[in-house]
Each structure stands twice: as structure tokens, then as C-alpha cells.
Amino acid sequence: MKRLFDIISAFIFVIILFPFFICIALAIRLTSAGPVFFVQRRIGLKGRVFRMLKFRTMVQDAERLGTGLYSFGDDPRITRVGYFLRRMSLDELPQLFNVLTGSMSLVGPRPPVTYELGPWEGYTPEMRKRFDVKPGITGLAQILGRNALNWDQKIAYDNLYVDRVVKYGWWIDIPILLRTFWLVLIARNTVEKDLPVSEGHSSIAAHARTVGKQLSSRSVWSKDLS
């Protein structure tokens, strides 16, 4: 049922938003050199690598410049059009095609870049748990903090989502999607901040496990983090 919901919803969104796709593509091509789409290798279901689509928001080959993978609100590599797209989360729209092809879901943990948290072989069980479901365009961590969260907290919320979707089923995706629409409209936590990440994989997993235990007894919509 979750897959059917994803296909039908993504298809409807693509049809409705197609004029925006055209306008965004033209704006990108007319204001900066480079391709319209940014394709990046991400880690998906069960650790499988796939190519995730985004509208390009930075100068071409930005990952080889400045701070590399990481970018923040005042990053000079972000184009003028790109800043607007990021603020309104419009750069994520091409991932609807990832949903249609089956590499992503509408709702699920956000997929990390292949080298963002080190090699897959070094992931602890707590870090791998979030990959028991397909990655999503949005997720529990996105509606409860997004870029205001560090990786410890994101992993804890993602693992909580896995537990909840197993217990209650795919219907919990609906309120997550509705809340996502509202947060996009008010542009909350869309600009990345330079947040600390625990030292090493074991520290990330240990903190995520601790936060996860605290969250497990609360409402799935709890905003409290320690």
C-alpha cells in the first residue's frame, strides 16, 4: 500500500507541478552556467547506492570548492536562484522521479551522501536501522527540526520513524506530508547551519541510541530533544 500511495501521489504532484519544473529549469539555465539537475550518489534501502536528483542550486562542481560537501546559508557557491530554491525547498522536487522509479519514497529517512558518514562497512547497527525502509523526500526528522538537528538527532528520529511505520503502518506518512507542506510554506529550518557532529561513528550511534530510547516513550510528534 505504501508503494501504491507513493506512485499515485508522486504522479499527481508531477502533473500539477510541471509548470514549476519548466520555470525553475529556465531560471537555472539563464542565470548560471551548468546543468539544470544535480545528480548525487546517495545511500538508500539496505545500503544500496542510487542517484538522487535535485535542481542545481550551486555553481558547477561546487563539491570541489570551498567547504566541499557541506554548505551553509551564506555559502558564496550558492547561486541567487539556488538560494530561493533552497529556502522554499523547491530544489527537492526532482526527487518525485526517484519516487516513481522506486529508489525513494515520499516519506522516509533522508539518504546521506555515500561518503558523508564514512564507509557503509563502518556503520553500527543503530546507524543502519534507518536504512530498513526506503529513503524519503521528507521524514520525521525533517518536520521536527531538519537542518536545526545534528546527525545524532536525525538518526534517532529516523529510527523512531522506522519503529512507528512498522507498528502503525504507512498511514503515518500522511500527517508527516501535511506538516511538511506547512513548514515549506513558512520556510522553517531550510537554511543549513554549522552544527557539531559527534566524533566518530561509535559516538554518533551511542548518542542516537540514547536519544532514541528517550523518544520511544513519547509521542511520534514530540519536539523535545536532549
Report on this model:
- With 226 residues, the chain is mainly alpha-helical.
- Helices cover 45% and strands 9% of the residues.
- The chain has helices at residues 2-31, 80-87, 95-101, 125-129, 140-143, 151-168, 173-185, 200-216; strands spanning 37-43, 49-55, 105-107, 136-138.
- The strands form two sheets. The protein has a two-stranded antiparallel sheet. Strands 3-4 form a two-stranded parallel sheet.
- Strand 1 (37-43) and strand 2 (49-55) form a beta hairpin.
Kindly summarize this structure in a few lines:
45% of the residues lie in helices and 9% in strands. It is mainly alpha-helical.
Strand order, sheet with most strands: 1-2
Integer count of domains: 1
* Main structural class: mainly alpha
- Indicate the percent of residues in helices: 40-55%
Order of helices and strands: HEEHHEHEHHHH
Largest sheet: 2 strands, antiparallel
Broad shape: globular
What fraction strand?
5-15%
List the total number of helices. Answer: 8
Distance from first to last alpha carbon: 35 Å
- Quaternary structure state of the chains depicted: single chain
Mean pLDDT comes to 84
Q: Rg from C-alpha positions?
A: 17 Å
Low-confidence stretches: 194-199, 220-226
- How many DSSP E strands? 4
Please supply descriptive tags for the structure shown above.
226 residues, mainly alpha, two-stranded antiparallel sheet, two-stranded parallel sheet, 9% strand, globular, disordered C terminus
